Amino acid sequence: MSFKHILSVSLILFSVIDILGVLPIIIKLKAEGKKIEPFKVTAISGLIMIGFLFAGEGILSLLNLDVQSFALAGAFVLFLIGIEMILGIRLFKDIAEHDRPSVVPLAFPLIAGAGTMTALISLKAEYEIENILIGILLNLIFIFFTLFVSGWIYKLIGDSGTNIIRKVFGVILLAIAIKLFKSNFHI
After folding, report:
1. Is the Cα torsion angle 49, 55, 58, 59 positive or negative in sign?
2. How confident is the model at residue 45 (pLDDT cuts 50, 70, 90)?
3. I need a surface site. Which of 22, 41, 111, 185 has the fewest CB within 10 A?
């Protein structure tokens, strides 16, 4: 175990998970009256990440998929979510029907989506499992805290602030999707 490696893994996962970028979606869901359960979202996200850390390559191999194809699929999903945020339209209609969006879209694909899963496979090749697990745990603590205070943030910034943040982070999400697409698109 190495503090330097734990810090590196934590920062890489933090940038890929981008919980602060997901915050406008969380606030939007709360503004629509959806109940978000911070512990449930955090626990499910953690289970997905840890499960994929240990079984991800095997699952992809079993399905005859490579990491790049998986990352490209995730890039498309992130792209569509970014479009929703910017244009104020709803593409994922099944999400709107749920009163508790703790699994979809929060835990997956926003927090523990294709980008996070691809990063975990890459990290596994470079760092020890213990360092990655601690990095995941540190990120889960921050995710829980962000989800827990999201209602307070919404009250602070209101609808106008939420709309501005949603559009700005929608553009950022589009940029992340395009970057993910570019870095994994090989003909």
Report:
1. negative
2. very high
3. 185
Q: What is the DSSP letter of 66?
A: -
| Tokens representing residue 133 in the block | 């697990």
Query: What proportion of the chain, given as a percentage, has pLDDT over 70?
Result: 95
Query: Cα-flanking dihedrals φ and ψ of residue 59, to 5°?
Result: -65, -45
Q: Element (H or E) spanning 64, and its range?
A: none
What's the whole-model pTM score?
A: 0.75
Q: How many CB atoms lie within 10 A of CB 23?
A: 20
Measuring CA to CA, which residue among 77, 101, 109, 87 is closest to residue 27? 101
pLDDT digit string, tens, across residues 129-181: 999 999 999 999 999 999 999 888 878 887 788 788 778 877 877 887 788 78
Per the listing, tokens 């997901």 go with 22
Compute, in degrees rounded to 10, the torsion defined by CA atoms 57, 50, 72, 37.
160
DSSP string, 113-129: SHHHHHHHHHHHHHS-H
